[in-house]
Amino acid sequence: MDWLDEVKWDAHGLVPVIAQERGTNDVLMFAWMNREALARTAELGRAVYFSRSRGRLWFKGEESGHVQTVHEIRLDCDNDVVLLQVTQLGHEPGIACHTGRHSCFFQRYENGAWKAAEPVLKDPQTIYSK
Amino acid sequence: MDWLDEVKWDAHGLVPVIAQERGTNDVLMFAWMNREALARTAELGRAVYFSRSRGRLWFKGEESGHVQTVHEIRLDCDNDVVLLQVTQLGHEPGIACHTGRHSCFFQRYENGAWKAAEPVLKDPQTIYSK
Q1: Which of A3, A29, A80, B95 might form a disulfide with A8, Cβ 3.0–4.6 angstroms?
Q2: How far from chain centre, in Å, is Cα A61?
Q3: Quick check: bond before B93 cis, omega within 30?
């Protein structure tokens, strides 16, 4: 599969991935993929990442139900960063973050400090207590 | 400066950074910052990255004139990824990519191949031949 060879995998065999919401264009999260994760993402039309902490494939939503449908896969000019266009399923509005927020990027810099700037849409304990 | 200590810098003292365009919400580029780059970005209201290839601070636009005004700095839930909201200066529409395109993410996956899907807005030779 040539297209997978064109990706410049890092020393750990990984590539950084940005997930962006179709429609709003909000940046939902940032994660990593290895070769298999990217292949499965393209094959399934669903975001599959590589969890560095767990050392295995992470089918986004496998625990939370917050699956991401993938509409488009893009690669940057240096072939070393991937951008996904996704629909965030499982809640309306979509919850991508494990804190129960829409986006993982909820901390905003203000006058020398990081302030939480987005609401929790669902209690994380409810999300993960299956 | 406490807020800089809250960022989880990687083993190389760097953090990944996503630059997103205010208004369109387009993801323009992905780069890295060290502590000094993030401090200068906040101080100047202008994107300052750390160039891994050159091993020094990279004041975005220093050669191309394609400076990024920074409106907002965000940090993700794990404190290890930064998201900038920027206005891309120097050309209309903005050019963030060294290939002369609006965004670095111009390659789209289609049927097992990466296809260039965005136009070149300005010849890179013209951008960098000062």
Answers
A1: A80
A2: 10
A3: yes
- Domain A13-127 fold is Ubiquitin-like (UB roll) (3.10.20)
CA distance B99 to B28: 12
Say what the pTM is: 0.97
Give the residue among B69, B7, B37 at the shortest CA–CA distance from A113.
B7
CA neighbor of B31 nearest in space, from B3, B53, B6: B53
User: Do the Cβ atoms of A112 and B6 come within 8 Å?
Assistant: no
Residues of B in contact with A127 (CB under 8 A): none
Contact A99, A120 (CB under 8 A): yes
Residues of A in contact with B74 (CB under 8 A): 105-109, 117
Calculate how close chain A gets to B130, using CA atoms only, in Å. Answer: 22
The pLDDT value recorded for residue B130 is 56
Torsion of CA B48, B15, A116, A54, to 10 degrees: 160
In whole angstroms, what is the distance from residue B108 CA to residue B114 CA?
5
Which residues does chain A have within 8 Å of residue B97's beta carbon, measured at their own beta carbons?
A: 77
Q: Judge whether A31 and A86 are in contact, CB under 8 Å.
A: no
